[in-house]
Description:
mainly alpha, 434 residues, three-stranded antiparallel beta sheet
Amino acid sequence: MAFLQLQKDLDKLTGSKKLSDAVEDVDKIIELLTAARERVAAANDPHTTSLTLTKLQNPIKEELDGLNSNLKHVYKAQNEFNKSLKTAFSKAEGSLPTEHDPMQSHSPLINRAIAMHLLREGQFGVASTFINEAQPRPDATHPDLHSTASPLHSTTSPRHYEPADTPITDADIPIDLTAFQSQELKSSFAEMYDILSALKDRNLLPAIYWARVNNEELEARGSNLEFELCKLQFIWLFKGPAVNGLPDTSDNGVEGALKYAKENFNRFQQRHLREIQQLSAAIAYQRNLADSPYGPIFDISAAFEEVAASFTREFCSLLGLSAESPLYVAATAGTLALPQLCKYTSIMKAKGTEWTTTNELAFETPLPRSMMYHSIFVCPVSKEQTTESNPPVILPCGHVLARESLQRLAKGSRYKCPYCPSEGIVKDAKEIIL
Length: 434
């Protein structure tokens, strides 16, 4: 119930035009003041100055009254949403220490993550403003410092970006935020954003065209994106104008779907023949499709959302980027871990002990499977998790254990596998990367 109210208050907050109205009021006030200043400067006359200021009072007062009225509605909506947040989410017990900020020295990386997130979301204007304002301002009182390179301003030339179809790996993404204003980088994300916007409007054609242009790369990755898009387009046409809202012509409905299949499905027969046969056989049940054996195939209630997620994943993969925004993933994972971290900190504080580990948490954080990116290996002999200094190694017999465990088991240069009768030489064990 609390979450339903939270959703209602969120819709109310995001749907309100009062904040944009308040911004317009501020813009009008700035315009009035700027125009008045220009008239006073041009006239250079005390009488004109007095007259201009007198005429300015009423318009400014009206705009300020409107601004205050709009802001009251904004504050009210924010307060209601804040109350809903407190009701929906129980307050975490305890608090985290604030005397040390572990991210203080990583401001350039944080700024980079924010800039990348804004670009991925298609907020190019906001991203440009953020990049400009996030750049450190040179100190005019210390001109000798201008020649010194800083983390964000290097004396070398900005990184050159290849055309948009060249993979942009995470290592290629510069810390210098000015390079984010590269037209090639913006155009890549602009293309993705435009295609996703079209998918939200149930227009599959831009995505199909992109998949067809990048067919070779997608095929090399074993991706079925192009076929899934064409399959959904067939179903969308099959539904007819009553559902898809497209013109009632020969290119729509069952006739249009068959025409589309003849033009596009031939190239997919080798890999997807069975699925194509199912789509074709469903025509016999068009009057009672929901109760037919092919009903689930034609249920597309979540199909557009799923294909949009697949498109985003493939698009970002071809650019050498993760499908999800790293900023979003980090913020979400941190939110999930925060209650347990606060609780653990409170317990340690009550016991008078401190958590001294710097590179890992003292407990396991329950994250969803979608956020588990790095596999871990626990040595079956020592029961300890492997690390970079103690990596897992595979024996010729196929069993895996930690390197330190193998060294403890070895007698000289030879060892006996703890799980089978096999024996071997330590140097034959190969390090594996999970």
